[in-house]
Specification:
2 strands; mainly alpha
Length: 123
């Protein structure tokens, strides 16, 4: 059985590596969701900006539609779009840090496996 051959410290390194990999996958899903929200908001904003000033517009709130001032809705969507862009930038920085950690963990594990995993390296 492999777990008997792999020292406990290396098993812990591998668990951390797998957790980082899982975090990266979750972050990718969050980024995809955020991107879809951004695109949807941009399209709605574009449609609103093309609408005539006097045209009736509605905002969805749960299962109902509420009549809303066009300019207020444009303002709300612009704010939402700006928030999505900010969240995307923050998430990209987090992803970059996580990817760096992932590469470092991979290098440590590979080095330990090549070296026979005799003793833990300095972390």
């Amino acid at each position: 059985m492999m777990s008997q051959q792999v020292p406990p410290w290396l098993q812990e390194q591998i668990k951390q590596y797998q957790q980082t990999q899982s975090n990266l996958q979750a972050m990718a899903a969050q980024q995809q969701q955020l991107e879809m929200e951004r695109i949807s908001t941009e399209r709605a904003l574009e449609e609103l900006q093309n609408a005539a000033d006097g045209e009736t517009v509605y905002r969805q709130s749960g299962p109902i539609l509420i009549r809303t001032e066009r300019q207020q809705l444009i303002s709300d969507l612009e704010e939402r779009l700006e928030l999505a862009k900010t969240q995307t930038a923050v998430m990209e920085k987090q992803r970059d840090r996580l990817q760096k950690t992932f590469r470092e963990q991979d290098a440590k594990i590979q080095a330990a496996l090549r070296g026979g995993a005799a003793s833990p390296s300095e972390t």
